[in-house]
Amino acid sequence: MYFFLAAYPLLGAGLKYIDDAFDEKIFSKKLAMVLAPFLGILWAYTMLIDPFSATILLAILLGVFIRGKIDNYAHMTGLVVILVILVFAGINLLFLPLIFLATAAFLDEMGNDVIDKNRGHFSDSKFLHKITLYFFDQRWLTKMAVLFVVLVGIFPLYFFLAILLFDGAYLTVRLYTRSRQQTKKATCA
């Protein structure tokens, strides 16, 4: 249990670090490239040791892969490392929860893309708009799906906590990126 509660935030933070190194050009791309294989090894190991974890992490991978979010060399390197390890080592997972969670992850990515592209059309004064922005910006559909499989007794409760920590670390790195962007804008002005 404790391993997952430590590994998931490392995975979430590492993913966002790589994203922001390439997309926002805030962090070092070289460091992101060095980090990617290690992140891939941790991701694969975290999948190999537990079928519940394998199901959650593969669902996230499928959701972002199908949506086309693996869009830089570092992410591709990490994905190749994960796939090579899993092909040689094998993987145990739960098929029906995988479909359910992968669908939720894919829909979260779609919703996140829609709000990112149409943020200007959402009103800060309308409650429904605020909720929609928050829900897809924070990717709550996947978290709710994990909570559902926990509540129906398929997954242990600590995996819901693990996914919250994953996203919390991801969002913390995003907040740090945004603060660095604002600092850069302020010093350039």
Keywords:
189 residues, mainly alpha, globular, 8 helices
Describe the structure.
This protein is mostly helical and 189 residues long. It has one domain (2-188). It has 8 helices and no strands. The chain has helices at 2-22, 29-48, 51-66, 73-89, 95-117, 127-137, 140-151, 158-188. The protein is globular. The N and C termini lie far apart (48 Å). The mean pLDDT is 93.
Task: Kindly give the count of domains.
Answer: 1
Low-confidence stretches: none
Q: Which series of helices and strands comes N to C?
A: HHHHHHHH
Output the radius of gyration: 17 Å
The class by helix and strand makeup works out as mainly alpha
Give the percentage of residues in beta strands.
under 5%
Q: For the terminal residues, how far apart are their CA atoms?
A: 48 Å
Question: Looking at the structure, what is the overall shape?
Answer: globular
The total count of helices amounts to 8
What does the main sheet amount to? none
Short description:
The chain is an all-alpha fold and 189 residues long. It has helices at 2-22, 29-48, 51-66, 73-89, 95-117, 127-137, 140-151, 158-188. The protein has one domain (2-188).
List the helices and strands and how they pair.
Layout: H1 2-22, H2 29-48, H3 51-66, H4 73-89, H5 95-117, H6 127-137, H7 140-151, H8 158-188
